[in-house]
Amino acid sequence: MPARRTAIVTGSTSGIGLAIAHALAADGCNVVVNSFSDTPDDHAIASEIAKSHSVEAVYVKADMSKGAECRALVDTTVERFGGVDILVNNAGIQHVAPVEEFPAEKWDAIIAINLSSSFHTIAAAVPHMKKAGRGRIVNIASAHGLVASPFKSAYVSAKHGIMGLTKTVALEVATSGITCNAICPGYVLTPLVEAQIPDQMKAHDMDRETVIREVMLDKQPTKEFVTVEEIGATAVFLCSDAAAQINGTHISVDGGWTAD
Predict the structure, then answer these.
(1) How far apart are CA 59 and CA 47, in angstroms?
(2) Domains of the chain
(3) pLDDT tens string 197-213
């Protein structure tokens, strides 16, 4: 039996990250679950993943706004499991406001968590992947890594940055048995998206149902939210042997939003 692969999924106690953690565990990976809160519930999530999929799963606290903690997350994983085979950079936050009203501290936090954290985890993980001669890096970008929307200056900037980081890293590791790709979801009904709705209601002067219909799903031709399970399955594919020659690109899971 080959050794189990070890996967880190940042921001994985809810939403897309949790679905990816479950999907990779179901595929036979040991999983490191991460958030910044370090509560009994966080550790219970890791225990549930381990129990459900008969793998090892642990929770590791790391504040993804702090570069040193991002790198320590990788170091802790290597100490615990002997290496890191898969790195999924998923942690993210959002804030919606016109650019002239956008709080500077929100800009700094979004850039740190949504972009800089991926630089730090990748920089820490790549030497271990090179030593092993294999690795998969999956960055959770967004349709907003390809196109813009109003009132999201920091988020759009960070996600465009993720796309550039993905391509650059892919070129650097291409001969090392490592791939680096991005997933670009459209609107997924997660706690992050739910939290945007009140701000969008205010920014557009609309009620909840109108924001969902005319702002969020307006650009998704299917008129349906993407599911977290669909993103999890896409991540598993990118981490598989079948995706060995997929490198430096993205898969859009957005109901056709970016088709034009």
Answers:
(1) 8
(2) 6-187+226-253 (3.40.50.720)
(3) 998 899 889 999 999 99
